[in-house]
Records
---
Amino acid sequence: MLQLTEVGRRTPGTRLRRLVTVSLPTRSIVAIVGPNGSGKSTIARMIAGLEPTESGQLSLVGGGPGAVSELLPAEPPWDRAKRGIFLLPADEPVFEDFTVEENLLAALAPFRLPPQTRRGILDGIRRRIPLTDARAGTKAGVLSGGEKRILGIARVVLLSEAAARARNGLSGPGYRLIVLDEPSRGLHEGAVASVANLLKHVAADGVAILILEQTQTLADLVADTIIHLADGEPDHAHSTATDDRKARGIA
């Protein structure tokens, strides 16, 4: 799993000074909630290798007894991607002139994978995300805002799985982390519910997910742990009990 320990960096307009230790184990969903300027996007960019950290550390920790911790060095995003760590920025566009299917194929293009492996990854996405199958021939530009966001998430899921398969071959996908910066921004309530349902299925498939949001709506629907960020520092954090989510009909 990826672990952040008091990671911080000052940037213009952002006062991110310290972050409590955050663990992102496989199949978990962690949410960081805070207003604009609180440091959420800075955290995302540091995890993805787009910005260096000025304090604290990021490390990959193995599972099981005697787990070994590997400190992540400063490295570019493509090296983080090789480790299975991917970021979907808030303003990440889909290719609007491409069909839904072409958007998915474009996500696989950088990887040299056997045709059978490529087909298996695509078939898995189609089963988990009905939009990618039902509207495969539809131009992405005519999709609704929520559908475009779901397509963007589908693309980053494909990227993470393809990179892991290219890295580990038939031994399995290994650790995968997807960081989503404001995945519910601008979406209506029904679209937020669709994104929430998708994220729960993705996590159940063995992916760790970190979402960064201005509001708590999506976090309440999916997160195992919610961290509130205010004025560049964690205000408070709490775990969301699965039984409580089930009681509210959202687990």
Note: The CA atoms of residues 144 and 168 lie 36 Å apart.
---
Amino acid sequence: MPRPPCRAFRFVDHVTILIAEDKLPMKTDTYTKAVLTIIALMLTFIACRSVVTPEKTVAADGPFAGVQFSGAPGIYFFDNKTGDIWLYDDLFATKPRVLRYKLGKLGDPLIPLYDSRGKNGK
């Protein structure tokens, strides 16, 4: 049975409120309940998944693990695993200078391996 049309109007603070004659509460249909239940279950699944199996986003296992950085007049990188030292100098020049050294033992001079301006070590 369809609802009867609203016939009564009441003005409250410049807002019109329509009052239905039957004043029955709105009925929520089965489809709306099913959709809201599915949304609630999916949100619960998403929230619980991050608690049960957290993502592993540790940067220490990446390709630059063990590389130290220094931003003095140039940019220096030191690789703890290989002992390589990289210097990027004159970064704003048209052709920046790249130097690579090897650290043999502490106290020994650095071994030049590469110079981007033509002087190659080894």
Note: The two ends are 95 Å apart (CA to CA).
---
Amino acid sequence: MPVYKYKVKTGATEKDKVRYMVKVNTRDLQHTRRGFLTKKHAEAYDRRIKEQMLIGVVPRSITLAQVSEKWLKHHRDEVKESTYRDYRTLLDKHILPALGHYKLDDITAMQVQEFLGNIKDTHKGRKDDPVGPRTRDKVRMTLGAVYRQARAWGLTINNPVEGTRTPPYKRERTIVFLEPAQAQPFLDALEEPIKTMAFLLLSTGMRSGEAAALRWVDVNPSFINVDKSFYKGVLTDPKTYKGIRRVKITPEVYARLKAYRGSKGDADLVFSLDGGYIPHHYIYRRVRAAGRAAGMDRLGVHDLRHTYAAWMISEGFNLRFIMEQMGHSDVQVLLNTYGHIISSVEADYVVRFDRFLHQIVRFSGHAQ
């Protein structure tokens, strides 16, 4: 199974035009792979073919679309419904239209790299714009997972995703949150049931999907049990295993929920619309409009969660307590997300602690 050298038409230099191919021509297999950028990669592929042929695995005439469907069906019962939907969307909108018709072993690393660099947005109004780096990462991870499973099933010896990368990027976090003085104008611009829901999100740091899934049996005088989330039209588990938690609430929060319950009559769900779960888009539109009324042009539902964290950090609450309230898996998540807020209040912490020391400690002979 020799390795052959050939040239392509495009390339800045003669060296850039060089490619390598592997040809297999045996009684059991006729197979050609082109597009290797280096001889080393071609030889490594050649070795893998020889190793796999020894154990009876050879490239098959199966397309990426066919194996993707098998992979998706195989994993449906192993992941959350929302995760399954995300996989389905990534495959249908990006991966399969571009690569689905190719046989597994005909797709090269160079081809995948070019595909990753040219993924376009499919949303109305942003069509043909490049997708963001997070979407590109998700596409690459999904395609890689399909190939890893195909290799485990003996359908291929190839995984072209291993030879690719997505450009590194620095995530720019612009955290939007309400100032304390904006809270009342914001709530005043809302109507029930979103008004009380927004108050709860500001007071606990819960996710909107968690609040939408709440039932009155979950509400207690000093805490709320969170074990479900209503996300993308599906009742599911919280985002992470740490999301299943007991959220502490103040007497003021419980009193507000109790008063709200008395005004809406007997119902199982804490927050409902026509007796059913409230969809996210309904919450989003009303929060967005109320944010504008409070002077915030770009306030989203998740920003109410950011607001809770910013207020708690500013008031000096313990980061581990905030982490547990919000259902984060690690304090580092808080540090990464709200580090700039923590830094901005450190000077105030020093002044407050200096005032505390001054009240309890005196040294004779020192200036007061």
Note: The chain has a mean pLDDT of 85.
---
Amino acid sequence: ERERMRGLFREAAERHALPVIEEDDAPIEAAGTRTTLSWREARGRQADLLGTHGRLADLIAVPRPDRAANLGFNTLYAALMSSGRPVLMCPAQAPTALPGRIALAWNGSMEASRAVAVGLALLRASAGVHILTVGETPEGTTPEALARYLAGHGVVSEIEVLAGSGDIGARLLARAKAAQADLLMMGAYSHSRGRESLFGGASQYVVDHADLPVFLVH
């Protein structure tokens, strides 16, 4: 299995014509501003290792957890809670291009605000931002205020207030699809300790059902 994974890694590097840095102590000048790849192996529980190794990553990419098989939740949880870095939850089918058009879930919370701040480079590089909001937001954090903030950074956005009833996560995914979004950006919420609270409500539905990449920040 180890050799098979290394083979897939080499194939990906060749397919995308990306240089591979083999040594941990390779000089920084070897990378510069280019995109590079490197292979690392470590012993231990994946969730434990991801939390620490991920702290020097710009972005941590993990597969969408499989609820039926009970696989991947601890990995996603560790990436969000122990690394301090943004996480890209990836569907089984790889997107053709990112960031493309971004759907931005907004409720005025600190987590949503942090997602915007951390993901600003993606928002600026996007083909447009579709703000999705439900109900009222705290004073000073209206979707209109968010749109003005984004405009100050050169980001063109539009606002949609989600109507109807039912699961918010389901409505977020449905409207993101209707907006032809290539990526969903949202905060991951936690009001108490434990995985259940982190992935409660809308976040849990999105984690379980998203078929597009989701940019998550805690």
Note: The chain is about 35% helix and 15% strand.
